[in-house]
Design goal:
Blueprint lengths: L1 H32 L16 H8 L3 H12 L2 E5 L2 E4 L2 H7 L11 H5 L12 H12 L11 H22 L2 E2 H18 L5 H4 L4 H18 L1 H6 L6 H31 L9 H5 L10 H15 L1 H16 L1 H11 L8 H4 L3 H13 L9 E2 L5 E3 L2 E3 L4 E4 L1 H4 L22 H6 L13 H18 L4 E2 L12 E4 L1 E4 L5 E3 L2
Parallel strand pairs: 2-7
Antiparallel strand pairs: 1-2, 3-11, 4-7, 5-6, 8-11, 9-10
Helix pairs in contact: 7-8, 7-21, 8-14, 8-15, 10-12, 15-18, 15-21
Bound molecules: protoporphyrin IX containing FE and 2-acetamido-2-deoxy-beta-D-glucopyranose.
Length: about 500
C-alpha cells in the first residue's frame, strides 16, 4: 500500500513539474517574443525586476545602471518593462516640451496622496499648476526674495565660523542642510524652520533626512506600502509616519501664513505662493488652497536635500583641488566688499564650478521614468513599444566619455567652451516641461553660499578629524543622492 502511495504522489509531483515546466516555457516564449527582449541587457532583466529592486534598496542604482551602459551600450533593458538610455539625442527626444513622454506612475508611488506639481502624471493638471507657479520662482520673480536667501547664507557662514572655534572643524553638510531647509521653508511657508538660529535638529529635520529613503521604499514596494496601513511592518510604517508628520507640519505653517496674508494684504511678507492666495479676490486665476498645499510640500522636499548635497559636494571638491580653489578665490577677490547676488552672475569661474559640481555630483542621479507614447518610439535605433518605461539617468549622461573626456575628473574649466553634446547631455535638473521649477532658486543659493564661504574661508581644506575620509563622501541614492555618512568635515580658515 505504502509503495503504491509513493508511486501516486511521485506521479503527482511529476505531473506538477511538467505542468509548471510547460507554463514556464510558454511564459519564456511570450517574453522572448516581445520587442523589449531584443534590446541589449542582461538576460535576467527579460524576466524579472527583483534584482533591480534589490539594487534600489542598497542605494546603488545609478552605479549599477551605469555599469550596464558600459557593458551594453547607450540603450539597456534594466527590467522587463524599463529601458535606460545614455545618449544626448534620445534624451532630448524623451524630455522635450513638445510631444512629451508623460511621467510614469512611479511618481505616485514615490509621493502618494493628492497630486502636486512634482508628482502628477496628468498633463493638464501639471500645465495649470506650472503656469501659475512659474512667475514667482522665475529668475526675475526671485529678485524680491534675494534678501531672505542672503540672510540665511550669512547665518550659514556664521555657524561654520562658530563651530570652527568650538570644535576645530566644521561639518558643512549640517549647516548646508539647515540653510537650504530654512530658505525653502521661509519662501514656501512664510516661516523658516529656524534651524540655523536654534542650531537644533528638530523632529522635522530628522524626518526630512529619512524622506528620500522612505520615498525610495515606497516606490520600490508600492503594494507592500499599501499593506502597512493594515499590517504594521516597522521600517515601512516609518515611511508613512514620516510623511504624515511632514504633511501636518506643512499644513499648519501654510494655514498660519495664509491667514496672515489675508489679514495684512500686500504688507505680509511675500512667499513663492502668497500671490496665489490673494489672486481670487483680485479676480485672477488661481489654484485651490488644498492643491497649493501639495505644491508647497513638494517645494520643501524637492528643494532641501538637493541643494544641500550639491553645496556640500561643491565645497568639498573645491577644498580638495588647490588650483580650482585658487582660481575661484582670485575671482571672488574682484568683488566689491558689499557684493550681492546681482554681482555674482557675471563671474564665469564661479558659474563653471557650479556647473561642474552639478555634472559630477548630480543630486538626482537616477533615471527620471517616462512612458513611451502609444505609437512607440525609436531611441538610438531601438524600437520601444508604447506603454513601456524609459529613462535617462544624469549619473550616466554626465559620465559619458564620448561627451565629457576624462569624465570622473572634477575640472570646471571644461565648461569654458562647452560643445553641443555637452549641453544636450547636461541634465542635472531634468528636462522638457517637467524640468526643475526651482533651478533658479537653487543656483542663487549655490552662488551666494559659495561666494560667501570662499570669501570668508579662502584657505579651507578637507579635515581628517574624527576619522573623516573620502569614504564618507561616497554617494548613496534613493532617487535623491547624499553622502553616505551625512557629514562633511572641513577646516574652514
Ligand atoms: C541643486 C538643486 C536641485 C536639483 C539638482 C534639482 C533637480 C531636479 C530634477 C532632476 C527634477 C526633475 C525630476 C523629474 O523629472 O523626475 C526636479 C524637479 C522639481 N524640482 Fe528641483 N532640483 C533642485 C532644487 C530645487 C529647489 C530649490 C526647488 C524648490 C522649489 C525644487 C523644486 C522642484 C519641483 C517642484 C520639481 C517638479 C517640477 C515639475 O514637475 O514641473 N528643486 N528638480
Ligand atoms: C589665507 O592664507 C593667506 C596666505 O597664507 C593669508 O595671508 C591669509 O590671511 C589667510 N586668510 C585667512 C582668512 O585665514
Amino acid at each position: 500500500m505504502e509503495s503504491f502511495n509513493d508511486f501516486q504522489s511521485l506521479g503527482n509531483y511529476e505531473l506538477l513539474a511538467i505542468g509548471v515546466g510547460v507554463i514556464l516555457l510558454g511564459y519564456a516564449f511570450t517574453v522572448l517574443r516581445k520587442p523589449i527582449s531584443k534590446v541589449p541587457g542582461p538576460s535576467y532583466t527579460k524576466f524579472t525586476d527583483v534584482y533591480l529592486k534589490y539594487i534600489d534598496m542598497s542605494g546603488r542604482r545609478p552605479e549599477y545602471v551605469h555599469a550596464l551602459h558600459e557593458k551594453y551600450g547607450p540603450v539597456v533593458r534594466i527590467s522587463p518593462g524599463h529601458v535606460s538610455v545614455m545618449d544626448p539625442a534620445a534624451t532630448q527626444q524623451m524630455y522635450s516640451v513638445k510631444k512629451e513622454f508623460r511621467k510614469s506612475t512611479w511618481y505616485q508611488d514615490f509621493v502618494p496622496g493628492p497630486s502636486s506639481v512634482f508628482s502628477t502624471v496628468d498633463v493638464d493638471y501639471h500645465r495649470r499648476h506650472r503656469r501659475l507657479l512659474a512667475s514667482e520662482i522665475s529668475e526675475s520673480g526671485l529678485v524680491i526674495h534675494r534678501p531672505v536667501v542672503d540672510s540665511k547664507v550669512r547665518l550659514f557662514t556664521e555657524r561654520i565660523a562658530e563651530e570652527m572655534e568650538e570644535r576645530g572643524v566644521s561639518d558643512i553638510y549640517r549647516w548646508a542642510l539647515y540653510m537650504a531647509t530654512d530658505v525653502i521653508g521661509e519662501l514656501s511657508f512664510g516661516s523658516s524652520f529656524r534651524m540655523l538660529e536654534t542650531k537644533e535638529e528638530n523632529q522635522y529635520i530628522i524626518d526630512l533626512k529619512s524622506v528620500s529613503f522612505a520615498g525610495g521604499l515606497r516606490a520600490t514596494f508600492p503594494t507592500l506600502m499599501k499593506v502597512t496601513k493594515y499590517i504594521p511592518i516597522p521600517v515601512l510604517s516609518l515611511g508613512m509616519a514620516v510623511r504624515g508628520r511632514l504633511f501636518e507640519y506643512g499644513a499648519q505653517s501654510l494655514e498660519r501664513h495664509r491667514k496672515l496674508v489675508e489679514e495684512q494684504g500686500d504688507d505680509a511678507k511675500p512667499t513663492l505662493l502668497s500671490k496665489l492666495y490673494r489672486a481670487r479676490e483680485k479676480g485672477d486665476e488661481t489654484l485651490p488652497f488644498t492643491e497649493l498645499r501639495m505644491d508647497a510640500m513638494s517645494y520643501i522636499t524637492a528643494g532641501s536635500d538637493t541643494t544641500t548635497n550639491t553645496l556640500t559636494y561643491l565645497i568639498w571638491r573645491v577644498c580638495k583641488n588647490p588650483d580650482v580653489k585658487a582660481k575661484l578665490v582670485a575671482e571672488l577677490q574682484t568683488l566689491p566688499a558689499d557684493f550681492g547676488d546681482q554681482d555674482l552672475k557675471g563671474l564665469p569661474y564661479l558659474d563653471m564650478v557650479i556647473q561642474e559640481t552639478l555634472r559630477l555630483h548630480s543630486a538626482v542621479p537616477s533615471g527620471l521614468p517616462r512612458v513611451v507614447p502609444a505609437e512607440g518610439a525609436t531611441l538610438c535605433g531601438h524600437f520601444i513599444p508604447g506603454g513601456y518605461t524609459v529613462s535617462a539617468q544624469a549619473y550616466s549622461m554626465h559620465k559619458n566619455p564620448a561627451v565629457y573626456p576624462d569624465p570622473t575628473k572634477y575640472d570646471p574649466s571644461r565648461w569654458e567652451k562647452p560643445t553641443k553634446a555637452m549641453k544636450d547631455s547636461f541634465v542635472p535638473f531634468g528636462g522638457g516641461s517637467r524640468i526643475c521649477i526651482g533651478l533658479h532658486l537653487a543656483k542663487m543659493e549655490l552662488r551666494l553660499a559659495t561666494a560667501r564661504f570662499f570669501t570668508r574661508f579662502p584657505n579651507s581644506t578637507v579635515s581628517t578629524l574624527d576619522g573623516f575620509t573620502d569614504k564618507d563622501m561616497e554617494p548613496w541614492s534613493f532617487f535623491l543622492m547624499s553622502p553616505k555618512n551625512n557629514r562633511c568635515l572641513i577646516n574652514a580658515h
